[in-house]
Amino acid sequence: MIATLHIKNIGIIEDININFHEGFNILTGETGAGKSLIIKSIDILSGGRFSKDTIRKNQESSLVEACIFDESNSQDIVVSREIFQNGRNLCKINGRLVTVTELKAFMKDVVDIHGQYDNQNLMDPKEHIKFIDAFSKDDIEKHISLYKEYLYRYNEIKKELKRNYGNDIERQRKLDLLKYQVNEITDANLVLGEEEDLNSKKKLLQNSEKISENLELTKYKLSENVIDNIDEIIISLSKIAELSTEYSTYLEQVQGAYYTLADVLDSVTNIIDNVEFDEEENNKIQERLELISSLKRKYGSTVEEILEYKNSIETQIAEIENLEEYNNKLKVEQKEVEEKLVNIGSIIHDIRVKYSNILEEKINNELKSLEMKNACFKVDIKYDTNIFKDNGLDQIEFMISTNIGEDFKPLSKIASGGEIARVMLSIKTILSNVDKVQVMIFDEIDTGISGVTVKAVGKKLKTISKNHQVFCITHQPILTAIADYNYMVYKITDKVSTTTKIKLLNEEERIEEIARISTGEVTKSSLEHATELRKVCINC
User: Fold this and answer.
1) How, if at all, do strands 469-473 and 24-28 pair?
2) Structural domains for the chain
């Protein structure tokens, strides 16, 4: 049980300490006083989600701390969670730092919080199977665990077969594509450096007229002036070369220039005759470049990358062609795993059918005690060996007939809000005895009900509280009158801020609170009514 609860800087809660008791605890107060914040704080302490917006304004962190009395070991356990504006969590169990996951795992056996979200879960058929499995936990858990191990292997095999082109049609399609690509690249006879050479030749062809004109001019200038002038310079320097090493050096340099230019002249003369625009050659070069460009768009940005890609797909082809034997082994294993899944799934199904029948009977008995005497609850189980779901082969949906003679229909399509609340209360009552959870919290379980039904719900909560510590937020005077303890939540406001406070009411204050809830104000008549209601309900 939660013996004490300390909350600091959660919403409008500044700093409160609450001493709780065993049995049936009711939280009352005006709307917006902070009742739900107290439940939210317990949820946060249980590892629930937390938004930093919940931290009290102008504060750097919030803290929720509880002393939990473990009845099984007769010892106190201190649990805390501090959350900072930067998102950092500081969780502790008896002073030892733990992760949020570890905190959540510990608290799930301590606290069970029922809120509007649970009612939504009850309306969702996908969630129904979880209730059955929770009810049959001791018998079914090991089988589901084994089933999930085989399911994991089954999915891994499927993934591997897909990666290995385990489908014959898919594998052949892939091989055809890869072989086509190899042949297309092979037929192109690509050579490293070829594209650069082709571009150079193309450039020369496209500039042949310009080249020819300038080579002719070069030949003319060398022939007419330069060579003859240099020849005369050589003759002149030869006459004085023996007089000075400086002159002889000039002579050698000029002679070198003469031979160089003479070679240039010979080369230019020979080239000029071969410089012309060859349209056929230009077209061949253009076609070849276009082919290379097309291959680059498909297989790589360079010829080198294209050839590397060809090598890689040749390797893939070899691997795929050699995968058939390995894939056949995987398919044999897949068949064996499928058989295991069906066998274990069948065992799980039988357990679910057995416990569904028990749960049906128990819930129908609970519904009768909750003023749904004509209602009949049924668990619909569909078994399908063709679909391996995450938790077995079953599809489960809760059905209900709320009146005698009516057909069973899905819970989500027929039940009112009050009926849903009572079905959920019935399930919680039954599961609480299975899970042995210590604390059960109900956030406005009385929504959508009134009169004798509220009293029935109150009596049920009182019964549950004999084995569990029960907390309930309510606006119903009957529940307030039935509860063992009444905590009033209220807020005080000054010019600067609003702060939540909480107080355990004595008997006189309890009567006044029942009167306030009943009529909205405390009057003589409402007090008399509250006193009578308390007398009637105190021993429910």
Assistant:
1) parallel
2) 1-110+437-540 (3.40.50.300), 171-316 (no CATH)
Question: Each residue of 214-235: b (16+ CB within 10 Å) or e?
Answer: ebeebbeebeeebbeebeebbe
Q: Per-residue pLDDT tens for 431-461?
A: 777 767 788 888 867 777 777 888 888 888 8
Provide long-range contacts, Cβ within 8 A and 24+ apart, for 324-332.
324/171, 326/164, 327/161, 327/164, 327/165, 327/166, 330/157, 330/160, 330/161, 330/164, 330/166, 331/161, 331/166
Round to whole Å and give the CA distance between 45 and 519: 36
Predicted local confidence at residue 332, as pLDDT: 94
Q: What is the mean pLDDT of residues 416-424?
A: 75
Rg from Cα positions in the chain:
45
Length of the chain: 540
Cα angle 391, 328, 182 (rounded to 5 degrees) comes to 115
Whether pTM > 0.85 for this model: the answer is no
pLDDT at position 451, please?
A: 77
The H or E element containing residue 325 is helix 303-369
Q: Which residues pair with 61 in a beta bridge?
A: 84
The number of helix segments (H) and strand segments (E) in the chain equals 18, 15
